[in-house]
Amino acid sequence: MLILKTLVIVSHPEINNSQTQQFLLQGAKLQDVTWHHVEELSEIDVEKEQALLKEHDRIIFQFPLYWYAAPEGLKHWEDNVLTRNFVYGDGDDNLAEKEFGIVVSTGMPLKDFQRGGSENVTIDEIMAPYFAIAQRAKMQILPVFTIAQFQYLQENAQMQLLIDYQRYLTQQYPDSLQNRQIWFEREFTDRFKNFDGTNCNECETILNTFIQQREDISQLKSTISLIKQGEDE
């Protein structure tokens, strides 16, 4: 199974005081991803930053929404690192075919970001400049991962958000049932290995049951496909 190398480019001027970003950081630590906070850079080494981009398969911009845009730190990083020749000039498609995603947080309810809502604009419309960069670079664009009003989420909703965020970072796309199953199986297997010899028969039973159910669904799909072929003939 192909393992993606994911780079999370984070922009937040007060990240240590951000409950949302600290929560996401803990989730990212459980995944094999690179967390790169641009405001922590004392200076931007362009060659080093560009090499970092080239080393990864999935590139995520992550930031809070400040007046319909990312914090100034990300714009400063973009202006220095995403040079024309690096992105698309002189036949150098350094980012072509890489995946590009956005994780954006907002203190406003998600229902406000729609036509007729209080903001009267969608999140996708606000993110249009970043999509334009990705399209120019010939990248594959992932759906935006939006986190609305994190501070008001109940614990169970936060845990679901954590899982969805981790999948966004490392799961194969498209976000199909099969890819979700593969991701959950891999994650559960990795967690199971970290029990350090602890007797966890129940955990093993759950994993085996999950694998069996995934195989049953796969077999059912194959059977349905054969039936359809027979009907077409």
Structure, explained:
The protein is an alpha/beta fold. It contains 9 helices and 6 strands. Helix content is 48%, strand content 13%. Strands 1, 2, 3, 4, 5 and 6 form a 6-stranded parallel β-sheet that branches. Strand 1, helix 1 and strand 2 form a beta-alpha-beta unit. Helix 8 packs antiparallel against helix 9.
Brief characterization of the structure:
This protein is an alpha/beta fold and 233 residues long.
Return the average pLDDT rounded to an integer.
85
First-residue to last-residue Cα separation: 35 Å
Q: How many DSSP-defined strands?
A: 6
- Helicity, in percent? 40-55%
**Strand content range:** 5-15%
| Helix and strand run | EHEHEHHEHHEEHHH
Write the layout of secondary structure elements.
Elements (H helix, E strand, L loop, with lengths): L5 E5 L8 H11 L3 E5 L8 H10 L2 E7 L7 H10 L2 H4 L11 E8 L16 H4 L1 H9 L3 E2 L3 E4 L6 H16 L6 H17 L7 H32 L1
Helix pairs in contact: 1-7, 8-9
Features:
233 residues, alpha/beta, six-stranded parallel beta sheet, 6 strands
